[in-house]
Amino acid sequence: MYAEGSFLINIYRNKELSTGWHVKPRFQITLHQRDKALLEQIKSYFCVGSFNKSGARTVQYRVESVKDLATIIDHFDKYPLITQKQADYLLFKMIVNLINNKEHLTIEGLHKIVAIRASMNLGLSDGLNAAFPNITPIHRPNVSDYKIQDPH
Questions:
Q1: Sheet holding 21-32, edge to edge
Q2: For the chain, which residues make up each domain, given as ranges?
Q3: What CATH number is given for 3-131 in this structure?
């Protein structure tokens, strides 16, 4: 079975914005199309998001609205991940908080976001590295507590 869950921050040029850059957060889960029923249950649980075909044999559940991402963030705050994916989640949450505070609309805020993004997943793309050559990635959180917490 193919499965992948991701916390993503897409940063791309947009000349219509004052910074020249658009910041787009997204939570997604990608599964084989035969497992779409599971994604439908996840969507029903969260009551936010949409489906996208993601290749010949895969489908994605996506949440891209900053407003709807609050539901996802609330969930993962209550039920923390117990893998290194938790570090990406914490960095993702930092960026969403900056967006909620409108900091992505300033050059200083954009640079903060790029520095955080540089520590997520596979780091910055070649294009973002070229556009932001003086960015220093922030410290990536260390996740070492791999125990499932008692919910009581």
A1: 3-13, 21-32, 58-63, 50-53
A2: 3-131
A3: 3.10.28.10
Q: Is the pLDDT of residue 56 over 90?
A: no
Please write the tens of the pLDDT for every residue from 107-142.
Answer: 999 999 999 999 998 899 999 999 999 999 999 988
Q: Please count the other Cβ atoms lying within 10 Å of the Cβ belonging to residue 42.
A: 14
**What residues have CB less than 8 Å from 150, skipping those under 6 apart?**
none
In the predicted model, is pLDDT for residue 1 greater than 70? no
Whole-number Å distance between alpha carbons of 73 and 91: 12
Q: Record the pTM.
A: 0.90
Q: Cα–Cα distance between 3 and 58 in angstroms, integer?
A: 9
**Which residues pair with residue 63 across a beta bridge?**
27
**Rounded CA gap, 12 and 20, in Å?**
9
Residue at 42: amino acid letter? I
